[in-house]
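Anyone up for a design puzzle?
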């Protein structure tokens, strides 16, 4: 019997318990992970999954109160696309999203680039830009109601200073929605700025230094180094911005109530009106399902626009 033959059982005896211990550790980690994840899963099931399934079901009924109603198939959906108020709400929501999302993303990236430089009072400026994010939308709306006050608001004072005609702002159907778009851009700027700022700080300075040494201009460095490095962040900000713009409600509720002449009536406000004022639960549920479809389509289009990035 050789020395190698004598060593084999010893090696096996040592390695088997080691593998068992590793397996036990992995299972313990998995159990700990699921335990930590459990509160979030329970919340998601109770407040997202179950209401979502109920909304889909109720959209095929004529329910006036949640859980009651007869099955009517696609009637709610067919009625919606003949409802002028619903179609107007879809148009306003899409216009709001198309205007607010790209402008807010561009401005927040520009601000993040500026605040990523070594400038005096950089921390103070970051705080000031982020304050609107943590401020209640009701408080924000109250401030902008004063700004847009047609008689003594700051908005008309600025227009008068430049010799421009006064505006009705929230009382003019042609101006009300763009005025609220401005508020949405301003309030959401800080959140996107923080995300971009964190992403910019994760880009290796060595890459930027190498580009500079190769003679690249600031624009070339940004376009060829910084911009590709932000690709996953672009997609994340795009998705969250689209979802947020489709959920705009409290700003509309406090400032215009969907007016004037339904000029600021958006999908969430129309759903609220049908569900809690007219008590058409089935009809409002159908609107909710269609809104989710729109969000999914826009997010898919955004992903396609960045499809050349493998890390998305």
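Challenge accepted. My sequence:
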């Amino acid at each position: 019997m050789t020395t190698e033959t004598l060593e084999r059982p010893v090696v096996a005896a040592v390695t088997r318990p080691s593998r068992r211990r590793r397996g036990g550790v992995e299972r313990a980690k998995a159990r700990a992970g699921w335990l930590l994840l459990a509160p979030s899963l329970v919340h998601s099931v109770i407040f997202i999954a179950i209401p979502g399934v109920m909304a889909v079901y109720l959209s095929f009924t004529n329910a006036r109160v949640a859980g009651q109603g007869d099955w009517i198939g696609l009637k709610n959906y067919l009625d919606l696309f003949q409802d002028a108020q619903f179609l107007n709400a879809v148009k306003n929501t899409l216009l709001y999203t198309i205007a607010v999302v790209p402008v807010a993303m561009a401005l927040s990236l520009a601000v993040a680039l500026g605040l990523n430089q070594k400038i005096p009072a950089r921390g103070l400026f970051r705080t000031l830009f982020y304050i609107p994010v943590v401020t209640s939308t009701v408080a924000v709306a109250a401030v902008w109601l004063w700004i847009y006050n047609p008689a003594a608001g700051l908005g008309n004072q600025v227009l008068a200073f430049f010799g421009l005609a006064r505006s009705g702002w929230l009382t003019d159907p042609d101006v009300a929605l763009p005025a609220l778009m401005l508020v949405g851009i301003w309030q959401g700027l800080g959140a996107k700025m923080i995300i971009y700022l964190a992403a910019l700080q994760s880009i290796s300075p060595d890459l930027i230094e190498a580009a500079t040494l190769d003679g690249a201009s600031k624009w070339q460095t940004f376009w060829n180094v910084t911009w590709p490095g932000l690709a996953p962040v672009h997609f994340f900000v795009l998705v969250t911005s689209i979802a947020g713009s489709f959920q705009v409600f409290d700003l509309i509720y406090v400032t215009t109530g969907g007016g004037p002449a339904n000029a600021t009536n958006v999908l969430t406000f129309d759903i609220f009106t049908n569900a809690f004022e007219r008590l058409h639960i089935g009809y409002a549920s159908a609107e909710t399902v269609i809104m989710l479809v729109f969000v999914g389509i826009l997010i898919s289009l955004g992903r396609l626009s960045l499809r050349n990035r493998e890390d998305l």
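A detail worth pointing out: The chain is about 75% helix and 0% strand.
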